[in-house]
Model the fold of this input.
Amino acid sequence: MKPILLLVDFQRDYLAAPGLEPAADGVVERAIRLLAGCRALGIPVVHVWTTVDRARDSRMPHWKALGKWSCVEGSEGHRPPDGLQPRAGEAIVHKQFFSGFGSGALHPLLTAANADFLIIAGIHLHGCVRATVLDAYERGYPVCVADDAVTSDDPVHAAITRRWLQDRAAQFESVDPLLQRLASATTTEIPGAVTSGLIGLPVALIDGSPLHRPSGIKLLRRSPRCTELELTPVPVAGADEIADATAAARRAGRNWASAEGRSCALLLETVADQLLADASLAEDISEETGKPIRHAREEVTAAAAQLRALAGRAAQDMEVRPAPGRVIRQCPVGVMAVITPWNNPLYIPVGKIGAALIHGNTVVWKPAPAGSSVAVRVMEHLRAAGIPDGVVNLVFGDASTARHLMAKGDVDAVTLTGSLGAGRSAQETCARRHLPLQGELGGNNAAIVWSDADLPTAAARIAEGAFGMAGQRCTANRRVIVEQRCHGEFLALLIAAVGRLSWGDPLEVGTEVGPMISIGARDRVVALLSRARARGIRWLTPHRPDALAEPWERVGAYHPPTVAVVTDSRDELVQEETFGPVLVVQSADDWDGAVRQCNGVRQGLAAALFSGSPGLQRRFLSEVRAGILKINQSTAGAEVDLPFGGWKASGIGPPEHGIGDREFHTRTQTVYII
Done:
């Protein structure tokens, strides 16, 4: 294999444009990592730049119509950022329009280098990256797009492009597994995967039976708490397994949809009892995800409570009778695609699956690879409780498996918890197929702390809410906006409260902050903070003086709880969801400024107010734009039987739990009777 890396339009003018998703700084950091890795492996690099000659006005026609000057040769905006500058001997190809092949200079370079595989990263997946991929495809080059080193200012168009290209012209793979694959000189086409002869986890559980592959593609995993420990590889289901799983769910649905609601409730109650009696389930969660054992045990308890709450709703009246007809809400949607994350590998799947079943639906479940062993345990409990074969089917895999399930599986609706990018992809796919979508897409949650609050209590609750699971939960307290009058006092109390949190081995009962899910996730946070420091942002790690702190970071995917003080609300640390052990502290001179900062991010999942003022509490409830609001509590956590869903970019479709379950998992029929 003779790979070549193409870096397309990593230029300051493009990177400075508003609306890029993912954010420019993170994409640049990953591109720098990709570039460094390719250079270390001796892979040639070509820099492809849009170049405008001002003297002869070589702008594209639509730029001329808009009066736009960008990427002008010799200007600062024409240059790439630090870390992506060309080295001596690396080719630069200048282009006027979209494709890197447009000038005619790129193809001869690739031919001279005997290139037979292109790696592409760049700006505007829906535009210049897409055009370059298609021209490469036309010329016969296999292409891999570095999935987390591309961005776009039109994210829905980018989601369409990703799906469309994957079906035709390119594979997509994240930077870290791509570099691992290049380093091992493997040619497998599955992201982050290796070929393995081990028989461990099944590739799927269909109609109650495990389907094993003695050989095939498997995703490698390592324990977050000790990265020298390899976990069971995860097989990747393909089109055949997805077709079999959806067919099994369709067959089982014929009987399940007409089953007596009370019988389903009894089955869910039985599953709840079994979860609570499973003495090693919490340990499995902790070992597989790095979640502290105390939180893993709380998750088991909450999952059982969720099932009992669902069972209690089985007898609800599904019919109302406004004259002159009646409205029935008891028709199941059908086969539900359930796509779940790793951070709550029991609670989130159990809630989604239980809600589907209690309303007469069947399920095809695709869990995150990092929650795979827990998923097998869940399936065992469902079968042992008496859930009929085929009612719940499981397929393992990566993001491509989830995309295939949504795009081509015989499903009737999709419920997903994941990243904003995963939500964009699901939204595009479901819209194209007219499938209902329920998406929980995370949060960049803020707590407002006012000077009349109980400041020590507020500091303790926010510290736990920010760092209790290393910040890896969607409701984690990511930001705190403090009234200027008490900013200094509260910051000191907060640092002390963070320092009291126990940081270390998740299997120790007293641990409150464990590792992140992977070394890659930890390194992402390290890079985020390094960029912040370069911008002059001050951040504090209260656990650093602890002599035990340093070894944790060498053993596993640990990162110390970090508090960053940020004054610019436009900063990356404020605007982007870190999903890690980082808490951002801001200040506000007045109430309007605090609300403006609270609402001033894309997401709107949860928000909190610490204040004893009834007037401020009323204003908070009416002015803050989020789906979950709390008074004198951290943003973290939620009750099992109340609706859970975000506003803005945090959610799509009806909320989960409570009244949201019936709204999503059933269809309405209006019956007129003469």
